[in-house]
Design brief:
Blueprint: H1 2-28, H2 36-47, H3 50-72, H4 75-81, H5 84-96, H6 103-121
Helix pairs in contact: 1-3, 1-5, 5-6
Length: 124
């Protein structure tokens, strides 16, 4: 049961964190100047974005959920099942960032999901 809980926390918090960071970075804009002073200014702009801090907090929560899972499950199980976040990412990007997902990408998500299911079913 705790595997479900920590996997859920990892996938939701990790994916949510990536979506928030993506939203923040779209608001901040692209990096065009790679001189140290310009990069420093870019980082300052990114730290002023509220979505960035929400994303960092969620990704931190996901990291600790991953550590918790590794404390009681084998890494050969944990790493493959956390790939479920690769399926949640495009779904979240479609719903919250209004990105479009191609059929080819959707097929890739389906293949990853099948792989996660096989790993879950072959658990010790």
């Amino acid at each position: 049961m705790r595997e479900y809980l920590f996997l859920f926390i990892f996938v939701v918090a990790g994916t949510g964190g990536e979506l928030c960071a993506s939203r923040a970075m779209k608001a901040v804009g692209e990096v065009h100047d790679f001189r140290p002073a310009a990069i420093f200014q870019f980082v300052l702009r990114a730290t002023r974005a509220g979505w960035m801090w929400i994303g960092i907090g969620l990704m931190t929560l996901a990291f600790f959920a991953l550590l918790a899972m590794l404390s009681f499950e084998n890494v050969t199980f944990v790493v493959p099942v956390t790939a479920l976040s690769y399926a949640a990412g495009p779904l979240g990007a479609t719903l919250f960032l209004h990105e479009r997902i191609s059929r080819q990408r959707l097929l890739g998500v389906l293949i990853v999901s099948i792989g996660v299911t096989l790993v879950w079913l072959s658990r010790d």
